[in-house]
Design brief:
Helix content: 25-40%
Strand order of the largest sheet: 1-2-3-4
Distance between the termini: 29 Å
Order of helices and strands: EHEHEHE
Number of strands: 4
Largest sheet: 4 strands, parallel
């Protein structure tokens, strides 16, 4: 299996965005995902099994103001996953796109005291990836969305 979770962000008003930074965001977020997935598929297809998981974000489903490069990259990654799933799943390769929608808990980013479980727990995210990996091929999901129970969508 392979998991791709890299991304690069540059933010700001659309008319002020640096084209070089936008290109870098697309290269890391989308093109990097393509390169990793292609190399993984080349190894998995001859064996007839494997899993390729691409980590997306809510920005890949809905673009936010002053975040166009991140949205562009995540939309592209989502499209890549959907296209790959349709092509590779009949060959035994489980391709999935995981939308991570919300803040991720860390020592630097704790849950607010008045909102327990307001952040995504990294262990719970990992468990979701394992559950996805273990799905029976008769019921493979190509996309799942993970968000805390308080997150609005």
């Amino acid at each position: 299996m392979v998991i791709y979770n890299a991304s690069y962000r540059t933010r700001g008003p659309f008319i002020d965005l640096d084209p070089v930074e936008v290109e870098r965001a697309l290269a890391v977020t989308a093109y990097g995902g393509f390169l990793v997935a292609q190399q993984a598929a080349k190894r998995m297809v001859p064996k007839g099994h494997g899993a390729i998981m691409l980590t997306g974000a809510s920005a890949g489903v809905k673009g936010y103001a002053q975040s166009a490069p991140f949205a562009m990259g995540k939309f592209a990654l989502r499209g890549l996953a959907q296209s790959m799933a349709r092509e590779l799943q009949p060959q035994g390769i489980h391709v999935a796109h995981i939308v991570v929608d919300g803040g991720i808990l860390s020592p630097r980013r704790p849950n607010p005291p008045d909102k327990p479980d307001a952040m995504l727990d990294p262990d719970a995210i990992a468990q979701s990836y394992l559950d996805l990996l273990r799905q029976h091929r008769s019921a493979w999901a190509w996309e799942i969305e993970l968000r805390p129970w308080l997150e609005k969508f």
